[in-house]
Amino acid sequence: MKDNLTVNKISAAVIIAVGLAWIANAVSGAVVEPKMLAKNVFVVDTSAIATASAATTDAAPAGPAPIAPLLASASVDAGQKYAKVCGTCHSFGKGEAAKMGPNLYGIIGLKHAHMEGFSYSDAMKSLSDKTWTFDALNEFLFSPRAAVPGTKMTFAGIKNDQDRANVIAWLRTLSDSPTPLPAK
Questions:
Q1: Which residues lie below 8 Å from residue 32, measured CB to CB, with a gap of 6+?
Q2: What Rg do the C-alpha atoms of the chain give, in angstroms?
Q3: CATH fold of 65-173, please?
Q4: Dihedral, CA atoms, 39, 41, 42, 47, nearest 10 degrees?
């Protein structure tokens, strides 16, 4: 600030602005007096909404659709494109280092918590005797937290059955000898 006159001008502008806002509020309150109604003019019938909500809840699947029939029509190319999202946290090449998540090369047929040196959650470590099958991957990719409560994986899951099948079909190809597809 070059001089006291500039400070005075700024102070006056702030005081005038606050005063005008106060006057505008007082005048608008005197001019417009809202009258609260005893009941709503338009009544919304929520019974239809509650019924539709209940029907949607009842129809929602408790888990993923069986994977075997979906794999028969799965697209490896579509799965590879979708899995780019997974590439943020996982590596897929043979022998590549882990990222935030473990390397997924050859995942089908490997044990849970398979990657040496990776810091798995206790929940995943407790499943280290179990094998990643098509069905296990289907459950996990549908909802990681439901399939393995306590997992460190924060991904919400792939709810679309065909997208999930496409990703699993692509993961199957990441192997020196891919696991045969399950029978329908």
A1: none
A2: 30
A3: Cytochrome Bc1 Complex; Chain D, domain 2 (1.10.760)
A4: 20
| All structural domains of the chain with their residue ranges | 65-173
> Distance between terminal CA atoms of the chain?
80
Q: What is this structure's pTM?
A: 0.66
Q: What are phi and psi of 111, to 5 degrees?
A: -80, 155
pLDDT tens digits along 47-100: 655 555 555 555 555 789 999 999 999 999 999 999 998 999 999 999 999 999
CB 79: neighbour CB atoms within 10 A?
A: 21
**Element at 77 (helix H, strand E):** helix 76-82
State the Cα–Cα distance between residues 34 and 19, nearest whole angstrom: 24
Cα–Cα dist 182/158, whole Å = 20
- The SS3 assignment for 66 reads coil
